[in-house]
Amino acid sequence: MSISVFLLDDHEIVRRGIAQLLETEDDIEVVGEAGTAAQALARIPALRPDVAILDVRLPDGEGVSVCREVRSSVHPPPACLMLTSYSDDEALFGAIMAGAAGYLLKQVAGVDLIGAVRTIAAGGSLLDPKATALVLERLRRGDDPTDPRYESLSPQEQRILNLIADGLTNRQIGAEMYLAEKTVKNYVSSLLHKLGFARRTEAAVYATERRRNAGRAKPT
């Protein structure tokens, strides 16, 4: 069976070039494309491609956000390959946390891009193990008071994050904080976005690591 691919890039000429390159291969088919994040989020769920090639920087958002959204809402989720013109540690961090399977510079050779599509379609990963290790290390440093992600949370969101780490559901958090369940859901969505996570389980691990590291840091 052929590998279905969706392309997201705000430059039409880039999309055309990638599409022409991929469709020279008998086992790869480009099933759709978009020039904005909004278009991609509208089209990918209907097409359900095996692979989504996503530009990191877009006029109305980021490819990383598209990756996070489709990975959590489309079933089965596409394997996402991030393409960027510049090496960017923050974008790489965000891509890994969003569940991307690969991260390549646009200077990549055509044969390597084709190989990358086949690799991630088969369930493989193109993420450097060292880069993944750095992401995990950043999560472990979650107790750092200067962590801009945590500092961006409101006091209410910080409290809800701790309750998520305790294993409480939205309904239970609402009862604990005297909030409507829908209100809690909105808070959870907001804090996940600020922290760069796609799932509440990731937020729970993050909060648990903060507690553990904070406990180690306390003087005896």
Any descriptors?
alpha/beta, Rossmann fold, 56% helix, two-stranded antiparallel ribbon, 11 helices, transcription, 220 residues, Arc Repressor Mutant, subunit A, 2 domains
Explain the overall architecture.
With 220 residues, the chain is of the alpha/beta class. The chain folds into two domains: 3-135, Response regulator (Rossmann fold, 3-Layer(aba) Sandwich), CATH 3.40.50; 148-217, Winged helix-like DNA-binding domain superfamily/Winged helix DNA-binding domain (Arc Repressor Mutant, subunit A, Orthogonal Bundle), CATH 1.10.10.10. 56% of the residues lie in helices and 15% in strands. The protein is built from eleven helices and seven strands. The strands form two sheets. A five-stranded parallel beta sheet has the order 2-1-3-6-7, with helices on both faces. Helix 4 links the parallel strand 6 and strand 7. Helix 9 crosses helix 10 (181-195). The longest helix has 18 residues, at 200-217. It is elongated and about 60 Å long. The mean pLDDT is 85.
Which architecture of the largest domain does the CATH hierarchy give at level 2? 3-Layer(aba) Sandwich
The total number of structural domains is 2
Series of secondary-structure elements, N-terminal to C-terminal: EHEHEEEHEHEHHHHHHH
What percent of residues are in strands?
5-15%
Output the structural class: alpha/beta
Which fold name is given in CATH as the topology of the largest domain? Rossmann fold
**Average pLDDT rating:** 85
The CA-CA distance between the termini, in Å, is 62 Å
Keywords: DNA-binding, Phosphoprotein, Transcription, Transcription regulation
Protein name: Response regulator transcription factor
Domain HTH luxR-type: 146-211
GO molecular function: DNA binding
